[in-house]
Amino acid sequence: MKSTSCQPKGAMLIEYVQQSKDLGLDKDLLHGHYLSLIGTPADRNGKFEQFVKARIAEEVARQFFSPNENTGPVGDPATGILLGKIIDSGLPYFLNLLFFATHILVIAASGKGKTNMLVQIIIGLLAKGIKVHFFDHKDTGCNFLNVFPDALFLEPRHERWNLFKGFVDQQTRNAFVARCLGDYASSHPSARNTLNSILADYCHDPDDLPSLQDIAGVVSKIGGEDSAKHQNLSNALFNICKSIGDLSRVRIAPEPPLLGKELIIFSRKSIPARQENLLISSACTQEWERLTATGHDSSLHSVHAWDEGLKFFGATGETSQHGLVQREKITKDRSYGIGNILCTQSVKKLLPDAVDNCSSVIALGMNNPKEAELTARIMGLNSSQEADLLNLPPGEAYIYTGSGPVQKIKIPYHDLGRGKSRAEIEQLMTPHWEELHSQATYSPKIKAKVRKLDFRVTLGERTSPEESEDNSPEKRPPEPILEETLLLLSSCRGNPAYGVVQHYRNLGWSSGRGNRVKSELLSNDLLASRRVVPSAGGRPKEVLTLTPKGESFLEQYEKDA
Questions:
Q1: Which one, of 50, 108, 56, 106, lies nearest residue 77 by Cα?
Q2: Could you say which of 143, 144, 333, 360 would form a disulfide bridge with 401 (CB–CB 3.0 to 4.6 Å)?
Q3: Per the record's keyword annotation, is RNA-binding included, yes or no (predicted)?
Q4: Who's near 357: CB < 8 A, 6+ residues apart?
Q5: Closest residue by Cα to residue 392 from 143, 117, 50
C-alpha cells in the first residue's frame, strides 16, 4: 500500500481497516483470526496492524489479478510475496520468503525497472513483518520516502554505534577492527601493529570504550613521538572522522541500535567507497556477534537490499580484509536469518562468491549482449530467452529460483514521485535523528584545524597573502596548519643540516608532495631556503630553515596542542 504523507500509527491502522472493508474483508473475522495466532496479550501489541497489512496484500493480489476459478496463483501467498503476474497466463506470481534467506541477484541495465521492482519487493517484505535495510547509492531513498513515509533515512553522520564494541570477545573484535583500519589507511605494517596494541590497551571494557575520534587522537600523539608512518595513519583516521561526523564521537551507543524500524534507508552516495566498505564490514560483523551473544536461528527476519551491489560486493580489492568480509557476509548471513538482494548492471564485475551464493536470479532488460549471455548461462535460459533479455521493456523480468521452470513476469508499476529535497528530509527526519543522538554518549569535539589557501598565490599571481586586495584581519587567509605542514616544520627544526631530499625521505613523502608543502611554507614566510655545498664537495643541496615567524608559529601551535 502506498501513502504520500506521514501518518500516526493509529490513523494508518484506521486506513488499513477501511481498505480491508473496501476489499470485502471483515474486521472482526480478521481480529479473531489474529488473536488465535498470537499467544500472550503482550505479544499482540503493535502487531495487529502488521497482520492486517499482510492480509490486505494477499487480498489485493487475488482481486487485482482475478484468476479463473480453476486456476490458482504460482507460489503460496501465505509464505511468499507478490512480485507480479505471469505474462503468459496472467496468474499472480509469489516468491517464497525462503529464497530471500538464500539471497537474490537482480541484473538489469539502467532504466529497466530495478528500482520499481525493489519497491514491489519491499512492500511485500514489510507486509510479512520482515525488516529491510536499503543501501542507497543513487539518491533513490529521496523518492522512497514518498512510498514509505515511516522509513528512517540515515546518512553516516546520523548513525549511532561504536565500531569497537565487541559482543562475544573484545580482543578478537579489536584485532578485526585494527586490520580493517589498517587496510583502509594502507598503512605501514609497523603502524598497524601499533594500532593493534593501542586497541588492545584502550578497548578492553566493552561497556567503556573510546570513540574512533579518541583512537585517532591517541595514534596522533604516538605518531608525533615516533615516526611519520604513524602520523599518516592518524591522518587517515581523522579523515574518516570528518566524513562520518558525530558517529566518530560515539563512545556508548543505544543497545541494540536501530532495531525498532521496519525500513531503514542508509544513504551512501556522499561517502567514499573505501570508507563505506570499512563501515559496512564493521557493522555486519558486529551484528553477527550480537546475534551470537543473544541467540538466533536461520529464520528470515531482515533483508539487506543493495541498489548497486558493486559498491560492496565488487570484485576489486577482494584480497583485503574487506574482501574476506564480502565472502563471509554472503555465506554467513543466511545462518543469522539475514537475506541480501544484490542489484547490478554488470554481473561479471561482482565477486564470484557473491554470484555463486545467490540461489535466485531476477533478470530485467539488458543492453549488453555479453551480459545477457552470462546471465542466460547463470539462469539456464535457452537461446530465444537470451535474445529476449535484450528486448525486454521496463518492468518485465525473467525469474529463476532453481525450483520449477523459469517464469517471465510483469511487475506492477509504482510512481515514486519527485524526490524529496534535503530540507524536506531534514524536516521529516530531525525528530528521529535527535532521538538517536540523545541515546548515545560522546567524546568531546576536537576543533578542526583547517588550512585555507589563496588560489592567486598558488597560480603565481601574488607572492603572499598580504597582497590581497582586502587585507583586513578578518579576510586574510590564515596560516597553514595542516598535519603535513607541521611535520615538515618539525623536521626542519630538528634536522637543520638535512637537505630537502632527506626531509622527504624521512617523512615517507614523494617529491611532488614534499615540494607542494614546501612551496606553501615558503610563500607564507614560515620557511627560508638556501643552497649549501657539502664540505666534502659534490652537488649543492637545498637546506630549509625556520624563519622567526615559523619558529613562533610552531611554538605557539605546540603550546596550544
A1: 56
A2: 360
A3: no
A4: 102, 103, 330, 331
A5: 117
From the list 12, 262, 273, 258, the residue with the least C-alpha distance to 129 is: 262
Q: Buried b vs exposed e over 56-73: b needs ≥16 C-beta within 10 Å?
A: bbbbbbeeebebeeeeeb
| Cell numbers for 520 | 606553501
Helix, coil or strand: residue 212:
helix
- Beta strand 338-344 pairing with 360-363: unpaired
Domains of the chain, start order: 1-66 (no CATH), 84-159+267-417 (3.40.50.300), 160-257 (no CATH), 455-560 (1.10.10.10)
pLDDT tens figures, 465-491: 544 444 443 333 334 345 678 888 888
pLDDT in tens, 485-511: 888 888 888 888 888 988 888 787 878
Q: Quick check: 526 and 479 in contact, CB under 8 A? A: yes
d(CA 8, CA 85): 33
Judge if pTM exceeds 0.70.
no
The span from the CA of 178 to the CA of 196, in Å, is: 5
Q: Report the sign of the C-alpha dihedral through residues 385, 390, 396, 397, in that order.
A: positive
Sheet of 263-267, strands arranged across: 92-96, 80-86, 407-410, 396-400, 360-363, 104-107, 338-344, 302-306, 131-136, 263-267, 152-154
